[in-house]
């Protein structure tokens, strides 16, 4: 058991996984910024060079009862670190409950890769799989995290679809925000700005929103008369975008802050946006198409005396319609354990 600097407990999987081999990243490929859990991995070598379709699955008991549905966040991370001395980072696929998640292309870079998805579990357990697709490519995993969300969170997404995280930013912040500030350990990357402002609200109520953004990200914002933002590496169809706003000061008589959202030259907001003080306005936009040239603009209305502000943003791509349950072929490789995930579980 290891507890990191964010008070997150991590558990090794040696008692729970009987296949594959634990490996340690050589110290020469470890820097001080590499989290301790990322310095080990489990590799699944395939001795049959002709077999290119093999899955290795972790079954995580979510504890659903009867017809209850549970929405969960899953984060899988990978750091090759040339653990085998071959300088041949493998590629393989991630899957969950018989559904394709993403292709993992590891590298020789000294930065871990992380992938995150949010979906609804309709059975007692969820199966998260690493799948070999190419001969000679031995899949591995460094860390796996599973966190239960409230079912009402991200409810703009139908239960038979998943969200794949693209970007999550805390505007105006100069540090990454996650657990314990965010109960659900969503990772909000800092977006520092010379135009950052700090809220003077003694407290900010966030529980009235669907997605429950942490108060820490609502205490900072960016502002400007020509406020624009974009999504990193955005080319995707069916993008879901969530924006979060909170007024940073109690407005005096005669002061107003209202603005409109545009995507390029297209008006997106049906009504003017007026952030509330000491609480949060959450806006969601679905089925967007974003290109590398897409920019968003917050434009003040004619009667606004104050410039627009923006506190935080999340963007996700939408999956194809999900299969019901797991792939029956998963059964050959599933290791069944209750409430276990590779290295960590947060409930």
Automatic annotation (TrEMBL):
Domain Malectin-like: 2-317
Membrane topology field: Single-pass membrane protein
Coiled-coil regions, chain positions: none
GO CC terms in record: membrane
Keywords: Membrane, Signal, Transmembrane, Transmembrane helix
Keyword Transmembrane attributed: yes
Superkingdom of source: Eukaryota
UniProt subcellular location: Membrane
Protein name as it appears in the record: Uncharacterized protein At1g24485-like
Organism: Punica granatum
Gene from which this protein is expressed: LOC116200397
